[in-house]
Amino acid sequence: MRTQFARLALRSIGSASGRAARPTAAQAVRHSPRTQTLSTSALRPAEATTAHSSFKDPAVEEAQRQLELGTASLETGDVASAKAAYERSIEVKETASARFNLGVCLYHEQNVEGAIEAWKRTLELSPEAADAHTNLASAYVMSSPTRPDLAVDHLKQAAAITPGDAEIQFNLGAVLEACEQLEEATKAYERARDGGIERAQDNVRNCKAKILAVKMGLVGETPAEGQSGQAKE
């Protein structure tokens, strides 16, 4: 089976000007399914595709049918119908795609804890699902209390799976900057810029300006790199 996951991208943190904006980490998440803040990709469900086989398992076929129904409903904005279809798909035969998309529905319903559990289960079923990690990062930034340390941890895992993904690097830089881990944030933004996100250069300049301000004693010391708290779920 080939599974392609959607992503809930994080919004950029900070100001595009020379001033160092210091919003809370909770301001980082993009909650709307379509935005031009960071990601050029819309919120899409996982594709409902399966490998061809001469043997047709009725349970697999029904789970697939429900998955496709859920995807069609989600694409039209009918979250309730999509959620019900994904739940039926999981009842018949659990798949990473259905579990992932159920998490998307729960996130739309602002059930952040439920979405987190769904995406954790997705990773149990499909450990290389980088977008489950990025969605978990979004959820942990939205959770109460916010957990930027876990967001950073999941974005780093996503980056390890897909090192060439510039959006992940940009999002990683945004959360690191919110955590005042400016050196590491700068490197992430530089990777995003080198990967084709041109506006990341503005974030690189902003982080370097913040670092210089700290060195000149104009603002308080930033937390030591890597010392923002243990990522423990």
Automatic annotation (TrEMBL):
Pfam families: TPR_16 (PF13432). This is TPR-like protein. Keywords: TPR repeat. The lineage of its organism: Eukaryota, Fungi, Dikarya, Basidiomycota, Ustilaginomycotina. SMART domains: TPR. Coiled coil: none annotated. It comes from Acaromyces ingoldii. SUPFAM superfamilies: TPR-like. PROSITE patterns: TPR (PS50005). Residues 19-55 are annotated as: Disordered. Signal peptide: none annotated. It comes from the Eukaryota. TPR repeats lie at residues 96-129.
